Amino acid sequence: MNKTQKRGKIMKKSVKISLITVGVCVLLFGASAVAYRIIRTQGFANSYTINQKEKAQSKVLILTQQSHFKDSVMAKVKDTFEGQPLFIQVQDISTIDNVKQKDWDRILLITTVQSSDLPEKAVHFIKKEANFSKVHLFVTADSGRWPKKPKEVDVVTTTSKKSNIDTFSNAINQVIQKND
After folding, report:
1. Domain total of the chain
2. Contacts of 131 (CB under 8 A, 6+ apart)
3. Which residue, of 101, 107, 112, 161, has the fewest CB within 10 Å?
4. Do the bridges between strand 48-50 and strand 86-92 make them parallel or antiparallel, or are there none, so unpaired?
5. How far apart are CA 130 and CA 150, in angstroms?
6. How does pLDDT run across 82-141, given as a tens digit for each residue?
């Protein structure tokens, strides 16, 4: 075997090693992205009401997702409005297709940005159906920002940190208390 043939075998071997290394890196990156997405996926929020519909002067629908942060925020909202002449229905954001805006004085969407966007049903509702005199958007994002936010929508955005629970719930409470 001459020097040229040896170099060719060494080159082939180094190309194979490089390709295998790149392939493993791509697989690890893909697996990490999938794992991150699964870990950060929000749970299904349980439905419940705050106060009695019959005694309410105003009706508010809150569409949300289940997470420790959002559950803590909603507990503060519940504590604030329990016993008030206000009916609040809380349900999972996945039920947004069934929402009839005419039935509510205010609708609050409390959701999370994942991969720079909201859940698909929420995006559809915001773009196609939302009456923004009634619909208010509250968003959590890892960065505290939502770069794809539609310009015509007022959005309160924060990170899901324990230190932001009071601020976020106070912003929600202000919208609920708003007089039209």
Report:
1. 2
2. 101
3. 161
4. antiparallel
5. 12
6. 999 999 999 998 898 888 888 999 999 998 887 677 778 887 887 777 777 888 889 888
Could you tell me which of 135, 58, 64 has the C-alpha nearest to residue 101?
135
At 76, is the secondary structure helix, strand, or coil?
helix
Residues 102 and 139 in one domain: yes
In degrees, to the nearest 5, what angle opens at C-alpha 60 toward C-alphas 175 and 91? 115
Q: Are residues 87 and 36 in the same domain?
A: no
Q: Are residues 69 and 6 in the same domain?
A: no
Confidence band (pLDDT; 50, 70, 90) for 10?
Answer: low
Look up the CATH number of the domain holding residue 92: 3.40.50.360
* Beta bridge mates, 136: 108
Q: Which residues constitute the domain of residue 24?
A: 1-40
Claim to verify: residue 65 and residue 152 sit in the same structural domain? yes
Q: Are 61 and 99 in contact (CB under 8 A)?
A: yes
pLDDT digits (tens, 9 = 90+) for 43-75: 777 888 888 888 778 999 999 998 899 999 999
Q: Indicate the SS3 state at residue 106.
A: strand
In this prediction, residues 155-162 reach a mean pLDDT of 83
Say what the pTM is: 0.74
Whether residues 26 and 54 share a domain: the answer is no
